[in-house]
Amino acid sequence: MSSASKNDNLLHLLLNREVQSARPGTAVNRVRHFYERLTPSFSVHNIRCPDFYIRKFVNDGQLLICLSNCQQDVIVYRFTGLNYCTPGEGKPPESIDDLPEKANHFEGYFTLLYVRRLSVNPELTCKDFCVVLHDGEYAVLASSTRAEHGENESAPRNALPVMDSITLHLLRLRDGEVCDRMVFQHDLMHLSHNTAVSLHNNMLVLLSIGQQCIRIIGVTKHGLFKELQEI
Fold it and tell me: Is the pTM of this model over 0.85?
């Protein structure tokens, strides 16, 4: 059997996972290869969901991080899977009519763990920013005021807007405790889609446009931010 055919075989991938360890920093990408060989046998569409923003799953797929519509609360759900029975003796359903009413609701697949208030006015939580660290133990979320131009009439018209405050929140996912916060005053960062941040070995690298600098911030196992370097 050729190496290409072995790599495409799900059984071969499972056997290799038992006897071989992944190279440092490649464990997540290695697991993703399994999902390329698995296809769903049935899909349920038009699920009735609560009114919030769905942000992301943690790496192991057990927790789902969401944000409230007011963009001030974080909502975390645990994925419970298919916790209902379908008609038949282990046969997959053939249509949506074969599923119970519970299958049409978000709560049929997820259990609410907690709701936590992250920010207060005038700051709003960025719905497109979320970084998970320490193997899903913590999540970093961000809130900020709106980016606005200053009231100084002598400032040039092409001057960059400024956020009065930007706050990073370190959330412990298992119980929802906000372990630490870090605040930046009168700065500008592009938070949407994690544009201003890179992650390396549980360290955050932040690009500050307002201050024209790069900040390297560590996150300890005890749930604390630690300023390491500013360039």
Answer: no
